[in-house]
Amino acid sequence: MRFKTVAAAAIFAVGLAGASQAADVNEQGAKDLLGNLTHFLPDDLVKSGFIAVTPTSGHYEITYDLQKFFDKLNVTGFDITGLKPLIALATPLDSGLWNIEGNNAIDVTARSKPGSSPDAEFRYGVASSSFTGVFDPAIHYVRSMDVKGSGITLATKMTDNGVEKNDITIDGINYALSSSSSGEPDKLDLQMIGGLQSFQDKVSSDSATLGEFKIGAIDFKASATKLPLKALNEILRFVSDHKDTKTLSDSESAALKALLRNAMPIADSFEESVSAKDISVTTPLGNGGLQQVGYSFKMAGPANAVNADFGMRAEKLTLASGLVPEDYVAFIPDAAELQMQVPNLNFTALLDVLQQADFSNPEGTPSVDEKLQQAMFPDGTMTINFPKISAASGLYDIEASGSMRGWLNEKDRVALKMTVLARDLDKTISAVQDAAKTEPDLNQLSFGLMMAKGFAKTDPDGRSRWEVNIAEDESVTINGQVIK
Q1: Helical axes 347-356 vs 250-263, angle rounded to 10°
Q2: What is the C-alpha to C-alpha distance for residues 90 and 25, in angstroms, rounded to an integer?
Q3: What's this model's pTM, rounded to 2 decimal places?
Q4: Beta-carbon contacts of residue 461 (< 8 Å; ≥ 6 apart)
């Protein structure tokens, strides 16, 4: 829901880019704004009149008539009710900026027409939603935006040899964007935060609940520096202007290359993180849950040597014995974490390849993909670093770090160096041996752990250590000993 709301507001804002920047509100300004709002849309959809702009009381009132929109799409097989126009306001300021705002509620139901099989019903509702923001035509982007929604429901009902229902509810969503000057013309540093409160998805039949999925809250945070927003929007506008062009002329191809060059690098840095807490799953086979799970992503560094970092962490995973064998429950980790990095990505080389590509004759450049791959990985290999891989429970505590190198054109050719550390290894082995008395499949794991113990070295803190090296010729050494 958050992404759809933001996308709708962004499309609305793009329409302000080419409109009159004067604070006067008049009929000509309304025509200019309408032309920009519909610039990216097919002509037949524009002619339907589902978007209208009216100058009134110092601002432009923009109406999105959903009934006309669906009538033009000619949706068959369903009767749609509850469609109401959505209203947004755009106010030009003396500073050249625009205030944008909207406040709407949605309650739409689509039912399959009589005689259709199976019978189906879909309902989408938002008790209230609003957005406010400030748009800057000079960079074709919003400088700030605040989006909120509450009372969100999405329900489906299918009738075919029984009834199956899926009911989703979300108490609320929020999203805020702010920006500051990056110190370079037409570029901004952006900060985004958002969240979702109380997500619930219930699947049921006419006689029983089949499953239920709940999330207490989701939090989102992202930031980007030196975003060339105006340049990126000019690329979008070029694509829209040439959407019906099968072959670009030499001058058009040169213009596209210039736009791509102006947009590079896309950002000086980018990072985001998402976390969810109080997750629960209820099924007839058993219940499960997570206290918290999250991921992070970051790209930073000079354009010719960008590092891409990815991380994921989960805490307090619980699974009922109905979902896993009882003897395995104790081995479910209390916490697990994965960190990985792809280093030295050369985006400057990618741009050089794009600059040499012949966009006026795309069929004549079949090797562009290969050239892009070669530019990014000139020696034909890709390295992935693992700063941390860990899992811990009451029965074990394992941590690993290292790197892996793979050959892109030889899938079976890899090289790996990894340091593995384990605390209380004897305790782990004893637990596996006890569980193997009722779960024979664990005997092999027990044997493997005993062998591993024989190769281990002991660190001053008591942890067992293994330095694992797998060469590209498939030879393996552990703590310097060759493994046959």
Answers
A1: 170
A2: 10
A3: 0.82
A4: none
